[in-house]
Input
Amino acid sequence: MSSISCLCGECKLTLSENHPMMSLYCACKDCTQAIKYGAIKGGKAPQQLPQLVYVRSDIISVNGIKCMKAFQLRNPAKSTRVYCTNCYSILGINHPSYSNNVFMFFPNHCEVDLDLSIKPCAAIHMSSYPYDEKANIPYEIPVFHNWDYSQEKDRFFSLVDVKKAFRKPLTPPVGKTFKELINSLGDIKTLDLEIGADPF
Output
């Protein structure tokens, strides 16, 4: 077993598996905005290029559920993020493309005790990278600028690590899925943030 905890220790998700499924770099405006929102509420400051880690959506126990709240940046939104409302760590993110098989978290914005030696297999949404200096992406990692062309999206989903991460597991979850956790938290709070705007 492994766990994802908030930085203040109030919230903890215990997972059924110890190993991540996949990792990515992501420069999308939504990831950046969500991290900035957490930071102004007391969470950690954002990195220039956030790393994402994906784990199986199978949570065998939840601690501190009273301090967990589900948020969306705006309406309509695809991603739903669960924050600790005490320290504003981001515990996990759900997106429809995950098909409830995995969920994602930012390893630099929570505490984890799983093996994080996994290397990112791609850098995505790099057309939104907001800094003048180049991102420090290893040469061997494929870069995807946006999904404006279907060929780019198809090429991304053809990557071996991506296909493995998003496919349906061979066995059903032992515990609850991340989407079930979100549903148990009550109404999702909509922040009504403009796309790409600083959340001040």
Notes: Residues 12 and 26 are 25 Å apart (CA to CA). The first strand starts at residue 2 and ends at 5. The helical segments are 29-40, 150-157, 160-166, 178-184.
